[in-house]
Amino acid sequence: MARLWNFSAGPSALPESVLQQAAQEMLDWNGSGMSVMEMSHRGPEFTRICDEAEDDLRELLGIGDEFAVLFMQGGATAENAIVPMNLIGLRDGHKADFVLSGIWSRKSATEARKYGDVSVVASSESELNQDGRTWQPWAWFPAVDQWQVRPDASFLHICSNETIGGVEFMDWPDARRMRALGAGDVELVVDASSHFLSRSMPLDRVGMLYAGAQKNAGPAGVTIVVVRRDLLGHALPICPSAFDYANVAKERSRFNTPPAYSIYIAGLVFKWLLKQGGLDAIEKVNQEKSRRLYQFFDRSDFYQLPVHPQFRSRMNVPFFLPDTTLDGIFLDGARERGLAQLKGHKSVGGMRASIYNAMPLEGVMALIEYLESFERTHG
Ligand SMILES: *Cc1c(COP(=O)(O)O)cnc(C)c1O
User: Fold this and answer.
1) Residues 328-337: what's their mean pLDDT?
2) Which residue ranges run through the membrane (predicted)?
């Protein structure tokens, strides 16, 4: 059996050692005589699995006790509704502000409109002309000093890695800059789905952060929520009990049956990351992988990169061939070499290489080798 180099944007590759351990433990977890899928979510075995996953995640991200860590269901898409249902009522007026930087943040804003007064405070849904170059919509990130945040908004939402556009943004405003924006009391909410655990993150700047696991942290089915405890208890009356952060926090993610098997696999990924040396160590690997790939593209006249260099994602790398008639030939040739799922998102076309934590440098080098040879043949 040969495993492919899998460049899928999500669900995406998992570390091989994690899959092997899960396979070994499939019929009998740790001498319990049961698969993790067969256990009571309130029994001692799963209690240990779930609590260890939370503890390991806290260690990885340096999450203090002021935050609750929640394992929820519904994906980041459901979270787009669950966030306003929990947080828009933090302040009178039920206002939420959004920075639009791509398809995912736009979806978040659209969903939130059902629950209150939503304002778009900055957007990259237009071209950017800068230093004689033009950047396409969603290929750049709006500068923080231009965000027109309402001082009385409950929260300000950003997406820190736009998976489809390949735009990454880490310049999250701290308290001082939020005050400079006139938004000193507005809580920052971050959808970090597609670069979660790829690098360390300044949690001291956020009220909450969420991530669907299937991009970089585990299998589909579990959404990870990190939310400051003092923000709990303000859910709108229409919020389903199972989605009220206060309930989920109180029961340590077992208010109702959680996505137990997904939590177990995510927990194995957390342990794998700790063994690698934590987020600083994996960040160095991710830097090197993306540096090599972008360096290759920058030296090529054949491939085109759409994203403004300042905002290039380390995780999702969209690129275009010079002619769309080559797309099918490129993908077939890639597949023959064991390079899978390089097709770009249907809304933008072209190609996209997602190089999450589980993609080793070796896989990126195999991609670069193929890119080189394809350019030699078709350039
Ligand atoms: C994938 C993704 C989502 C949606 O996740 P689902 O699990 O499909 O709901 C939302 N935001 C970002 C940034 C994503 O990458």
Assistant:
1) 97
2) none
Reference 160, options 186, 188, 182, 118; nearest CA is 188
Q: Is 215 a catalytic residue?
A: yes
pLDDT(228) > 70: yes
**Chain region(s) in the chain for CATH 3.40.640.10:** 22-275
Among this protein's residues, is 104 annotated catalytic?
yes
Assigned architecture for domain 22-275: 3-Layer(aba) Sandwich (3.40)
Ligand 1 pocket by Cβ (under 6 Å):
10, 75-77, 104, 159, 163, 191, 193-194, 212, 215
Position 2 confidence tier, pLDDT thresholds 50, 70, 90:
confident
d(CA 262, CA 217): 10
pTM: 0.98
Q: Which atom of ligand 1 is nearest to the CA of 163?
A: 15
DSSP 243-283: G-HHHHHHTTT-SS---HHHHHHHHHHHHHHHHHTHHHHHH
pLDDT at 124: 98
CATH 3.90.1150.10 range(s) for the chain read 277-378
Q: What does the pLDDT look like over 97-146, one tens digit per residue?
A: 999 999 999 999 999 999 999 999 999 999 999 999 999 999 999 999 99
Question: Among this protein's residues, is 5 annotated catalytic?
Answer: no
The fold adopted by the segment(s) 277-378 is Aspartate Aminotransferase, domain 1 (3.90.1150)
CA distances from 253 to 35, 143, 266 (A): 20, 36, 14
Please check if 161 is assigned to a binding site.
no
- Centroid of ligand 1 to alpha carbon of 103 (angstroms): 10
* φ, ψ for residue 375, nearest 5 deg: -65, -40
pLDDT of residue 1: 59
- Residue 198: is it exposed, middle or buried by C-beta count within 10 angstroms (0-12/13-18/19+)? buried
Percent of the chain beyond pLDDT 90? 99
Average pLDDT over residues 158-183: 97
